[in-house]
Amino acid sequence: MAFKILKELKISSEEKRKIDEIIEKNRGREGFLLTILEEIQEINKHKYLPSDVLEYISMRTNIPLSRIYNVVTFYSFFNLKPQGEHLITVCRGTACHTKGSKSLLLELAGKMNFLKELESGENSFTTKDNKFTIQTVACFGQCALAPVVAIDGVIYSNMTSSKLNKLISSLMNSERRRKK
Ligand code: FES
């Protein structure tokens, strides 16, 4: 029976080997579940935890799948959807909102085709080619510098539409150059 379930999961044998290694390395340690989930997300090409991977972890650790889901949905650094190679985070806190962060977000949504998702209330979107993930945060703690946008971990203050356009265009151009 266990063999049948393993066969149905869409995980390569290489991926299983790496996951098993992470589980064994951390077995018995404090914070076991959090640690293995973090490490397993890190080895995923698109930095997320697919449902089949979570099922596999549950089987290998005997931790109920419901408990694993509780953890991954509680902590915002776990992703259940593929993440883009570049992460753009737009602050939607009050200070940034009053300084125009909504129009920056709408502009990005128009440029990257996720206006529909934005309207439906989602706060994280990844472009179909998995190049960009755009997400919102409640506050960066840098309200005096509003509006604030982070790109690949670098915080940009007093963001304007033209500054953002330049940064995104240069990211897109470097992506195009990489493809050639
Ligand atoms: S509200 Fe944007 S940094 Fe605080």
Task: Characterize this entry briefly.
This protein is α+β, with helices and mostly antiparallel strands and 180 residues long. It has two domains: 13-74; 86-179, Glutaredoxin (3-Layer(aba) Sandwich), CATH 3.40.30. It is 52% helix and 12% strand.
Largest sheet: 5 strands, mixed
Small molecules (ligands, ions, cofactors) in the structure: FE2/S2 (inorganic) cluster
Q: What's the number of helices?
A: 9
How far the N terminus sits from the C terminus, by CA atoms, comes to 48 Å
Number of strands: 5
Gyration radius (Cα, Å) is 19 Å
Q: State the domain count.
A: 2
Uncertain regions spanning at least 5 consecutive residues: none
Record the strand order, biggest sheet. 2-3-1-4-5
Overall, the morphology is elongated
CATH architecture heading of the largest domain:
3-Layer(aba) Sandwich
Classification by helices and strands: alpha+beta
CATH topology of the largest domain: Glutaredoxin
Structure commentary:
The chain has a five-stranded mixed beta sheet with strand order 2-3-1-4-5, with helices on one face. It has 180 residues and is an alpha+beta fold. Helices cover 52% and strands 12% of the residues. It folds into two domains: 62 residues; 94 residues, 3-Layer(aba) Sandwich (Glutaredoxin), CATH 3.40.30.10. The longest helix has 19 residues. Bound molecules: FE2/S2 (inorganic) cluster (FES).
